[in-house]
């Protein structure tokens, strides 16, 4: 086969087989990504038949990762990231340390030296951002507090892995790597390496936030003024891939992280929503190649040759990491649902694990067997991740059914979980209970405050609750889908419940609790889906606001006001 068609062959066969296996997986009631992974196994060198170009597939998959992270950045502001920093930064660091310790202990028990064991543990400690984003998007959780915490957590993990990849080569001699590949450095040299790495990352972030926030939105607007759809799409793709490449080559930042920050600064443009929509088809198509490329790396023989070690590796990824994250989130006094969501988000590994494993093998720090176990752990954990997310609701119900366990886990003595005793009883009578203080909830809350109307906010983000209380706004921390939170907000005496979070499943629970405690209460709820809006109206008799519908009504009213003839013009026409 001529070399000139290798790229076309790889894309054609990968997409075609991914489509076929995805359809089969859907018919079997399995997640479609299982089909994509299976397509990769079939195309890989470890199974008979046609073998795709694995290196080329990996680079194509990287484009999907770049576009996916760029799209997330377009919807995820710096304020969203800063809002969860108090839990995401220490949580991610401690969780990485815990997972590394689990992996190192198990690997050392297998007879590997401590240097190898540590690298193996680090490779199991970081989750795949691509898998997380697909899971959050499919469940409508990307813009929720739980989604923001999980995404912020993984951004911190990505930054930590960038640092590990930089430091591993100079430290490989100390960890027991090959003498001819290990470059030992002194303590002062290590300090300089750290300093240079942090300096590069800091310069990159500063450039993105200071220069990028001005340049990229201006560029997008300038291209849009040409009225050329092709140029607009090209500008979006060029910025995403160009910044990702430049960040990796110049600053040592990963492609994914560079694309994420590019999307965040591009969000400052009024055209960011259009940019996200225009790049969506290409982003979804190339993200499929990521899962196919993972499948290509998987060698099924490891399941037969090392079944117990595969199980142990999976236990660290799915159980060890998840439990560490679960208790860490609860330690920060976040609700049980948040702890379970973050735990499920981290119960898999992906792209950084492969990069780290390959680097470890090249430095003589990891045996090939360890790399096979890491790839097997990634393949199986990614396959099982949708099932792990489905366990969240049953697990929460099981814990809730054991009230004493729930009280211990959620720390019922939390001062932010209830209103201060100084709040007057008259204030929490005929008041408004506002659930969620995000982009929509904040505008509602500020408008009510300007009118002097009594208000109690129920919000999962503890930092937000603390900030609201400092400003004099009454607020309680917790998941309003749980009765205790709405009870603390005194929904039983409220005149109205306003649900400003776009999670329909949780909104239905809130409505059920509110109706049970206060049957005549007025309820308003938002949604993004017409089917969900119809369901909410039918089940709850609530006033439902559909985003696109309300926008159309507002624009229509404004149009009618602008084109309606003035009274003087009407009199002239009548005369």
From TrEMBL:
Name of the molecule in the record: Kef-type potassium/proton antiporter, CPA2 family
GO CC aspect terms: membrane
Keyword line: Membrane, Transmembrane, Transmembrane helix, Transport
InterPro entries associated with the record: Cation/H_exchanger_TM, Na+/solute_symporter_sf, NAD(P)-bd_dom_sf, RCK_N
Native organism: Nitrosovibrio tenuis
Membrane topology: Multi-pass membrane protein
Principal subcellular localization: membrane
SUPFAM superfamilies: NAD(P)-binding Rossmann-fold domains
Keyword Transcription: no
Similarity comment: family membership: Belongs to the monovalent cation:proton antiporter 2 (CPA2) transporter (TC 2.A.37) family.
Localisation per UniProt entry: Membrane
Single biological process term from Gene Ontology: potassium ion transport
Membrane-spanning ranges: 6-25, 32-52, 58-76, 88-110, 116-136, 148-168, 188-211, 231-260, 310-334, 346-366, 373-392
GO molecular function: antiporter activity
Residues annotated as domain RCK N-terminal: 429-546
NCBIfam families: PRK10669.1
């Amino acid at each position: 086969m001529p070399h000139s068609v290798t790229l076309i062959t790889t894309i054609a066969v990968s997409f075609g087989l991914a489509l076929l296996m995805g359809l089969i997986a859907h018919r079997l009631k399995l997640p479609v990504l299982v089909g994509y992974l299976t397509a990769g196994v079939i195309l890989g060198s470890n199974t008979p038949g046609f073998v795709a170009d694995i290196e080329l597939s990996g680079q194509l998959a990287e484009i999907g990762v770049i576009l996916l992270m760029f799209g997330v950045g377009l919807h995820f502001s710096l304020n969203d990231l800063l809002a969860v920093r108090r839990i995401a930064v220490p949580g991610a660091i401690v969780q990485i340390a815990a997972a590394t310790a689990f992996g190192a202990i198990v690997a050392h028990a297998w007879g590997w030296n401590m240097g190898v064991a540590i690298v193996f543990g680090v490779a199991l400690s970081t989750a795949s951002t691509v898998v997380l984003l697909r899971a959050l998007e499919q469940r409508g959780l990307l813009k929720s507090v739980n989604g923001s915490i999980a995404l912020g957590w993984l951004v911190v993990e990505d930054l930590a892995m960038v640092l590990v990849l930089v430091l591993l080569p100079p430290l490989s001699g100390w960890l027991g790597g090959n003498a001819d590949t290990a470059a030992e450095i002194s303590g002062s040299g290590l300090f300089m390496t750290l300093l240079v790495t942090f300096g590069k990352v800091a310069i990159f972030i500063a450039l993105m936030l200071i220069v990028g926030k001005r340049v990229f939105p201006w560029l997008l607007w300038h291209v849009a003024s040409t009225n050329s759809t092709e140029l607009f799409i090209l500008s979006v793709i060029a910025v995403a891939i160009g910044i990702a490449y430049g960040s990796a080559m110049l600053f040592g930042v990963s492609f994914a992280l560079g694309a994420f920050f590019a999307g965040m600064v591009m969000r400052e443009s009024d055209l960011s929503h259009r940019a996200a929509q225009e790049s969506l088809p290409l982003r979804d198509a190339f993200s499929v190649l990521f899962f196919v490329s993972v499948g290509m790396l998987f060698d099924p023989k490891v399941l037969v040759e090392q079944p117990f070690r595969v199980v142990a590796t999976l236990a660290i990824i799915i159980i060890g990491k998840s439990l560490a994250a679960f208790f860490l989130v609860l330690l920060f006094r976040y609700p049980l649902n948040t702890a379970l969501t973050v735990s499920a988000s981290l119960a898999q590994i992906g792209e950084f694990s492969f990069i780290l494993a390959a680097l470890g093998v090249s430095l003589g720090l990891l045996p090939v067997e360890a790399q096979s176990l890491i790839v097997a752990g990634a393949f199986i954990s990614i396959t099982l991740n949708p099932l792990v997310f489905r366990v969240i609701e049953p697990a929460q119900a099981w814990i809730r059914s054991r009230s004493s366990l729930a009280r211990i886990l959620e720390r019922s003595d939390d001062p932010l979980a209830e209103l201060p005793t100084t709040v007057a009883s008259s204030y929490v009578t005929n008041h408004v209970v506002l659930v969620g203080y995000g982009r929509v909830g904040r505008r509602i809350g500020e408008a009510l405050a300007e009118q002097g109307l009594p208000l109690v906010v129920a919000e999962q983000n503890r930092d937000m609750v603390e900030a609201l209380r400092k400003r004099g706004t009454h607020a309680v921390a917790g998941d309003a889908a749980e009765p205790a939170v709405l009870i603390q907000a005194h929904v039983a005496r409220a005149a109205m419940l306003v649900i400003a979070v776009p999670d329909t499943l949780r909104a239905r629970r809130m409505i059920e609790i509110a109706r049970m405690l206060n049957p005549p209460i007025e309820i308003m709820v938002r949604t993004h889906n017409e089917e969900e809006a119809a369901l909410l109206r039918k089940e709850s008799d609530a006033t439902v606001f559909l985003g696109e519908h309300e926008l159309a009504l507002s624009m229509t009213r404004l149009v009618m006001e602008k084109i309606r003839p003035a009274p003087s013009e009407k009199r002239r026409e009548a005369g």
